[in-house]
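Two proteins, back to back. First:
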Amino acid sequence: MTEITAPKSPITTAEFADEIREQLKYTQGVTVEQATPADVYVAASTAVRRHLMDSWMKTQQDMVNGNTKAVGYLSAEFLMGKQLRNALLNAGLTEQFDEAVEQLGFDYQDVVDAEYEPALGNGGLGRLAACFIDSLASLGVPAFGYGIQYQYGIFKQSFNEQGQQIENPEYWLANEEPWGHVDYNRSQRVDFGGYVADEDGKRVWHPATCVRAVPVDYMVPGYASGRVNTLRLWTAKSYDEFDLLTFNRSDYLNAVRPQVDAENISKILYPEDSTPQGKRLRLQQQYFFVSASIHDAIRVFYPGQDKPDLTTFPDKITFQLNDTHPVIGIPELMRVLIDEYGYDWDTAWDITTRTFNYTCHTLLPEALEVWPANLIGELLPRHLEIIYQINDHFLNEIAGKTRDKAKIERMRIVTEGDDPQVRMAYLAVAGGSHVNGVAELHSQLLKDITLKDFSDLYGEKFTNVTNGVTPRRFIKLANPRLSDLITEGLGTDKWLSDLELLKGLEPLAQDDEFVKKFAEVKHANKVSFANYAKRQYGFDMNPDTMFNSMIKRLHEYKRQSLKILALIARYADIKNGNMSADDVMPRTVIFGAKSAPGYYMAKLTIQLINNVARVVNNDPDVKGKLNVFFPWNYNVRLAQHLIPATDLDEQISQAGKEASGTGNMKFALNGALTVGTLDGANVEIRERVGAENFFLFGMTVDEVEELYAKGYGPAAYYEANPRLKQAIDMISNGTFSNGDRNTFAPLVADWLTKDYFMTLADFDSYTAIQSDIEALYRTPLEWHRKALINVANSGYFSSDRSIEDYLERIWHTGPLAD
């Protein structure tokens, strides 16, 4: 692990207070007396950016002039979280900020709260990207994060009176946003549509329309590394924003039509794609940011050169494709090299395949993006030609490796038939140097099942890099009480940059006094979260109960349905008197999740959870014994409050479906115990923290596949388990829908006839493990001893370690020289 020393304080508190005053005067146009907390937030953020500026410019200069290959991380999401606290920590200015703001007469928490969280991601994919670019900077590795600056994010979630998810635009840019620097002088042109013609023996693309990709740069400061990398997000503008003649004819809508069409590209994350228009917009988004990014990288690394030698491009930068969203970059780089720079096919293909690498984040075949060839041909006609050529070359290549014609047909990048489809994951494997999964089990299943044909013939391309999380945000910032206790226990704060040092806490798990201190930290965090939940949501939570959390994207394979069915069964047990007062261990259950707007079953599950919460929380028979809460609009801010307060974490996806997870890592790192299946990174967490410190239940991958093979009949489980039957019957008879039997009928019907992710099959195992959980929780010292062991053995799950694995196994580069 690269050693990093703690950041040194660059200025005094008094000097920082003066800088804030100066920014209030010259950027906000107010005095300290006139300023609001929002003014102080912008002023302080601007001051911090100025402190980072020299390091940012030096990093860029050293990157271009040095011999270290840079990393270009191409991702549709970057779920950054709030920036001010993270920048202060990495710049060594936290104490000065807190004290300076107080000197100016403001509460520093009010100033921090004035920042609106950037709505640039949805879930684990985006948060992973944010952790990775933080670690790249902290390790001193030059990098660009490339994506889109979405004006409205994915959506701002709320719930109506019926408990249904409502999607509202989340205009996070409504107020001043001091972190992003718009640079119109470095914009890129991105073309769409048109036709391709033969001209002078060459294929020439004549686009029909074009948009202007304007970069918005965010500094990504490393922790005490002296390096500041760049997150470059593209926003779409029109070159022809306004037609005055049309406007003067009172045709106001068409006068601004080019502007509207262009700006739609960067309006929201993941536009609903159940319509042809939605699919078209998604493809536009993906091509928009990768095309702009590739041209930008050429501009950055070959400044002022009209015809640079791009055979050196793979030595300048390596592009990591974060899932299939950026894979259109492979034919785009081929097009650039052949059409714009005149390289022959073989040279262009050699450059391209040495430039790209692909991270696959799924095991679900339906989640591997497939685009209709006719849609690509309509939007990107030249690229479709190149994709067909790649497909032909690739088929010829694999024909030399195998005589299995069925395998060759299965590996086609472009399917045959009347409606050919382009399989983006296959294009990524063919066009990149490496393919990695994101947990040991996931990577093995990729090779054995999802991409088996490719692994059989190109096994050398496949590797694993288990995900990780940054300890700076998810312990130091999110959990300062635990952070201070860890430093006390280890006698050093170097663990922030070498998380494996947490192993030194393991002997302290046998020290009852230290374990009691650890328990006090957890309880204080629970009190803080209860207060936060009251302020933000109006929830009344009892911190003396077990806090049991399940926070993740709402998807059927993640099995929030299993948790809610078990909750209903428990509610029925209490309600029916099947549990004595002494048997009931009070729980506070907290969900956090968004569903894709067009995902009907997931949205219905959200409605069910909310309605169960309404019934349970208002039933005097279970008061003080069971509460269920669903805070809306789950985001990084909420995670940073909830994760440190959680006692029991739920990681209950069907075995073989979750790629990795990073929430499981964050919870273990913050002293929660996990109940989970052998899925994703759960496997590695359990191996490292010890099987006795992890609550395992459910079928294994092999058992799941065996049950699929012999035929799964969910109704048999319903009939065989009285508690499960009663829980489903309560949903069916309208207990949680004001007597309406139709509201949740689709969920019930799916469970009893399909239940593809085997919720019912794992119900008995899941509910059985609860007795072990509750028995341990009734012995607080032993519970917290095991929780502390989880913390001590979570060092492997640092994103710094993940990045070092990428550097060694895939990127073959390293930090800039000092």
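And the second protein:
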Amino acid sequence: MSELKQLSSSEVRQMFLDFFAQHGHKIEPSASLVPVDDPTLLWINSGVATMKKYFDGSVVPENPRLVSSQKSIRTNDIENVGKTARHHTLFEMLGNFSVGDYFKQDAIPWAWELLTSPDWYGLDPEKLYITVYPKDKEARQVWEKIGIKPDHILEDEDNFWDIGRGPSGPDSEIFYDRGQEMNNLSEDDPESYPGGENERYLEIWNIVFSQFNHTPEDTFEPLPHKNIDTGMGLERVVSIFQHARTNFETDLFLPLIKATEKVSDHKVYGKASADDVSFKVIADHIRAITFAIGDSALPSNVGRGYVIRRLIRRAVVNGKKLGINDAFLYQLVPTVGEIMQAYYPEVLANADYIASVIKSEEDRFNATLNDGLDLLNATIADTKANHSDKIDGEAAFKLYDTYGFPIELTREYAEDEGLQVDEDGFDAEMHKQQNRARNARGNTKSMGVQSDFWISVKDESEYVGYDNLVVDDAKAIIVAQDETDVTEAQPSENAIEIIFDRTPFYAEMGGQVADTGAIINNLGEEVGRVTDVQHAPNGQNLHTVILSKPLKKGARYKLVVDRARHLKIEKNHTATHLLDQALRNVLGGHTQQAGSLVEQHYLRFDFNHFGSITEDDLQQVERMVNEQIWREIEIQTVETDLESAKEMGAIALFSEKYGDRVRVVKIGDFNTEFCGGDHVRNTNEIGIFKIVSEAGVGAGVRRIEAVTAEDAYKLLHDRETLLKQSAEVLKVPQIKELPHKIEALQSELKEVQRVNDSLQSKLTSQQASDVFGNVQSTNQGTLVAEQVQVNGMDQLRQLADTWRSKAVSDVLVLAAVVNDKVNLIVGVSDAKVKEGLKAGDIIKTIAPAIGGGGGGRPNMAQAGGKNPAGIDTALSQAKDFLN
């Protein structure tokens, strides 16, 4: 056998894709890490996660053979990152997939060819071992048929892929023998075998034979279409070709480790010390952070934003261990981009934006980190003061959850002080948080069950709504009730579903809502209303219809779109494109669409932007859109191939998948985008564009709602009416004088408030003379304890300041009723504080009498309550406390 090839990570990835492309597979680009229309996932966590729509039958792929290298994130075992050879948060999963096409007879030989052929990976067959499910005799036979030695095939009961309800089946795992020199166990250890817990036999590929449907009754029924789903970890395979003991010594991670060495305090990787773990954590986390932010996720306190924030904080803490005290992670972003440039050029293109987000978060956390260290030190002191040898689990979790302290860091600090950590208590708090996260993601199962009826419907249907909103002779080629084909449907309250050979009705897609309208028979009678249109699995426009008269399969009907509604939607859709471009021009190229809705009466546009938007920027965006409307630009639509569209500079949504032929909408030299929706012919048809609102709707996601044409006129008319009414109320003859009138009224109000405050201050001073005249004697000094009439706590504090400046007594207790609630304040002179008397102790004693509680400093404390009747009791208790 020839010597092991020396391949870069880019070569390993490309070779995998090229091999399956030669075997008729379509290369699917790596999808965004942020799932689209999938509430069951926080992140895309595998290659098959992006293929679910094909496997569950909701969409039929153009090519049933697919291959991808999919970036993925998993954080369920984040604590192991850096401590083991192959745990990562972000990784790439190489995979080939068959959707009802080939099965074991092809998948197994192809896997073997890729792995062992000198034209491809060229691995030594003697070093490869296979595991199979014991009952899967067919797979074993195919493996043996291609020449695998019987002693290189092992049976394992765990070789069955099952996620609950949905597709499932046996699988085969492929292991590579790295040699005993790579092992962490002795050769005769019981775990030293392919599939055991050891470092010698490395699992590199898992081939799932998806052939059963796991039913709600917990039975396994054969699937009508058998599928292939495979997964090969790129990082693992690369470690083989680069003779790396762990994944971190490959070209995917080493440049990041070297870059970290340069900014560390003379730390060097490879010394088999605790420093190595920190280097690995940083290299791993910065990859995940960079790609996540590049895919429009941003740090926050919830969901995937919390994951990013947690990763940044763990990396910063590990940087501290390496002597890095300033922000540094952001400096590693270009290195990530350079490593991944061959397949992910967008990382370098967006490096400045990604780095700015990370630096902002680092700066925030570096300030927080010091607070966390203060809390940790205080927690250690309290633990010792209470004569305990264990830090409370809830306190440890607060350090982890609020300040980003991993439990191992708290443990290290505790051990230095001779303490332990209540890790059971910590785990209990972590479990509560995980349950909250799972509940937030919903209970939907990971993959649906195939619908045979609509998958099998392959009749062609043409959409002609770009040019015609009426079709005179559309044939009803499929008429279905409850996914059952019928020859004639009768009127009913329940909707039916119809596919016509030609249709002017737009199917909801790309944020544009579906058309509605009428179905008319050859007698001119309306037989039904189209209430919704969606895409069937094979791409046809599927009409949801409420019938008023019978409708027959095979008959021809006139289809009429609600024209007025459709034209309003067109205006809003074109305005959405103008808004998208204007936001990019004003805010920067990093701004990306995060969702849109194009309705009849308004448009909604969500976009990624880190930070708020100024009123000036918003006005600039609005004016830029209107300027394109006033320019009267002709709208051009072109259908072309994908590469030609990209050469035209067309903007593509990263979350969308595009076929070989795409439709491009071009608005002069202002905007060019991929789009399958309906648009006006000329921007002047939009009339006018007006932003209604702008606000944040999530971490790093902002939303603009806007209106056009008639709806914009109505908005402006309503606002003008409101202004006129305001002018009448304020007795202003012209609207333009309103701002001056309001400014004058504000000045008058401020003057009235100033006079009022002055009078209140005089009344408070006068009341102080009366109150401070009643000084009582107690065993612990003199006391003033009175109920007063003030407007709130601020005036109570003003009285307390006067009391302290005049040294009226040793202790002050004042109570006031404001809006049926009690405000209570206690002051203690500095001399009495030195003797051990504390205002906080007094307030805690007397506050229950007013039905409240409070606290404060030793020399001043305050409380609030809901029981005014208890004031006399509270004042009496204050005197009792001092006796």
